[in-house]
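OP here, attaching both records as promised.
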Amino acid sequence: MRSWAWGATIAAAALLAAGSAGAADLTVDEVRAALATASPGHGAEFSGKDLSELDLSGLDFSHADLAKVDFFGAKLVGATFIGARLTGARLDLAWIMRADFSDADLSDVSLFGPVVSTTMAVPPLSEAPRFAGADLSGARIIARLNGVDMRRARFVGARLGVDLKNQPMGQMRNDFTSANLAGADFSGADLNRAVLAFANLTQANLSGAVLFRTDLSGADLTGADLSQADLTEADLSDTILKGVKGLETAKGFDKAQNRDRAIR
């Protein structure tokens, strides 16, 4: 996505900070102590805590209970959240470079404008966070996730599209360019106008997904399920549709852009 668009995203998200200026519930040292005293096999308990704007980089939150935790603007660079419970957590403007959310429960999280790179250019893979096997069902996400490992992740009913009612700083879209989304579950998700160019969507479940004006150019959908998906005005330039299931029930395929250039 163009850097100016993401500058607008960050500027718009920064407007939320006025309502998040209060002090965090815990200090960094108190968070470290709680993690250190957690018993084996039972993660630390932080549910409902305000941990906004703390520098928690490099900490290991594996299997911790972080439900509804406010991580607004927190630095989570290189932090580990493997198997953690983050249901309903707020990660808006959080710094998540190299953070590992593999197999974490991120259902219903808010992930708006997270910092994924030290540059406004395309984020380098060396800084990419990891979401392999994570559950992001029902999540609201607006982020640059270029090249990110999201294999087998769940986005059931997630809100990943453009909200035309809330575009004060220009159109803000999710960017999954070249992301690894093999086997991901997007059933019922809203992906309108999202960028999935050159993404690996092999064996992905896109049944019932809204793909209106979604950029699928160069994406690999081999073996994916498109049953009842809405492909109206989606860009299918060089999109690989080999072995796709349910295409005959997809809506708007006849109105997709460049469908004659799709590879079937």
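Record two, same layout:
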Amino acid sequence: MGLTGCSALRIGYGQAPDLIYWWLDGYVDFDGDQTTKVREAIAQWFAWHRRTQLPEYADVLVRAQKEVLADTTPARVCDWQREVIKRAHTAYDRAEPAAAEIVLTISPAQITHLEKRYAKNNEEFRDEFLQADPAQRAKKNLDRTLDRAETLYGRLDDAQRNRIAEQLARSPFDPEVWLAERQQRQQDALRLLRSMGAEGATSREQAASALRGYIDRIEHSPRDAYRRYAERLTEFNCALGATLHNSTTAAQRRAAAKKLATWEGDLRAIAAQGNR
């Protein structure tokens, strides 16, 4: 687990500020003044993240290296999911003041640009998740699941792959429900941005409060039917993750521990670079 060399994670993290800027710009089409502010905000956020968060992530991976060698439970998988959400909350909290300041500058033309980008994203979503042939749709879902699993454990054998396919056939996952919720969230975002311009959210604090409400609605949908669906899906996915893990061999678990150790080393190396 040496700290020399350039892994994909280290390279990706180094490029992330530019990639995130271009990703955001694809949605908003920033003007010159906004570009300066956004790039500065991203740079400051990454300096904080590198200094304060990456060492904590590395510590979490130390714990994961031990746990991955033993059997697990659906409840423990859900605990790890909550750990990820907790870390995401911390990251958002840090970004919120700068985000609030920037959204106050979004123009009607940029909102229109965002609306068109949403429409393009929805078409891409349909291509990826809503194939007309049910068998093709199921295969794509299986391929995505296997890719994620094999990133950690390495190659799964035929029996493991068949077991995952059998379980996914019982999954409550419904891409049509997911798309409908995405579209509701997109309209929510557009209404939020338009209201800031029309009603004049005069302070960054007001904008921050509006953004926080939007994030809360993403995490806890105001639509009861979708909340119930999301709860069922989370419960299923935690059980699937536990079943998959418990089916892995000792060699696959050692491979997973080695992969986690590599990521830990990468994170510590990236954090150390920020302290030079």
